[in-house]
Amino acid sequence: METPDPRPDAAPKRPSGAPFWRYILIGFFTVAPLWVTWLVFNFLIGLLASTGKPLLWGAARGVSPFSKNLAEWLIDPNVQYVLAALATLLALHFIGLFTSMVVGRRLIAFMEALLGRLPLVQTIYGATKRLLLSLQKPPATGQRVALISFPNADMKTIGFITKVIKDAGGGAELAVIYVPTAPNPTSGYIEIVPLDDVVLTDWTVEEAMTFVMTAGTTSPDQVRFRNDLAGSPPA
Predict the structure, then answer these.
(1) Residue 234 — very low, low, confident or very high, per pLDDT cuts 50/70/90?
(2) pTM score, whole prediction
(3) Quick check: bond before 151 cis, omega within 30?
(4) For position 66, what pLDDT does the model report?
């Protein structure tokens, strides 16, 4: 017969495998943010590298008659990955600098006039440019970031007001809202909501995009949840 432990503070024995699995979870939650960060940066760098690759191939052809070694070095996959990304960033910088000048603006206007003669290209280019320009300035409501009811009246989702239109039947104002998905805000869907049912927030576009990309873990401390007086933030 076993003699009971006379110590009142004797703790029950834990399974020997518990610390092992606990440390695995700790390690997972430590590495997961780094892994997600790497995936995002790897995607962006890969996109930049694929964009700048033709520049490096052209440079390699240009220096090939003078230096075969330099040409082979430029098209090496590892070197190309880094240099192509850097070349794309430099190209974007100089394009932005050039378009900020009068000559650059005139050249862009000339190119846009040419694209306007191509029906399909003009549709895609024009729609993309209007979307980007709309996000750079506040809409008619004065606020860009808003909340709409989804999937029911007691729950809200975040969206960006892209335009305010009129109801042909009654003349009521309707908000066209782009609702991004998390954590990838480049995908989403469009909602047309009565403007009276839209809750305008004081969040900036940058704060809202950070909120979406971090799955809600990063956000301002307060948000206006309702349009009624009880849900309004204190003055």
Answers:
(1) very low
(2) 0.51
(3) yes
(4) 77
| 235 pLDDT tier (thresholds 50, 70, 90) | very low
* Nearest CA-CA partner of 89 in 40, 128, 55: 55
Which has more confidence, 172 or 5? Answer: 172
The reply to whether 111 and 166 lie within a common domain is no
Which position has the token pair 């440390």? 23
Domain that holds residue 131: 102-135
Number of domains the chain contains = 2
Q: How many CB atoms lie within 10 A of CB 92?
A: 13
- Give yes or no: residues 146 and 171 share one domain: yes
Closest among 45, 46, 77, 39 to 60, alpha carbons compared: 77
H, E, C per residue of the chain? CCCCCCCCCCCCCCCCCHHHHHHHHHHHHHHHHHHHHHHHHHHHHHHHHHHHHHHHHHHHHHHCCCCHHHHHHHCCHHHHHHHHHHHHHHHHHHHHHHHCCHHHHHHHHHHHHHHCCCHHHHHHHHHHHHHHHHHHCCCCCCCCEEEEECCCCCCEEEEEEEEEEECCCCCCEEEEEEEECCCCCCCEEEEEEEHHHCEECCCCHHHHHHHHHCCCCCCCCCCCCCCCCCCCCCC
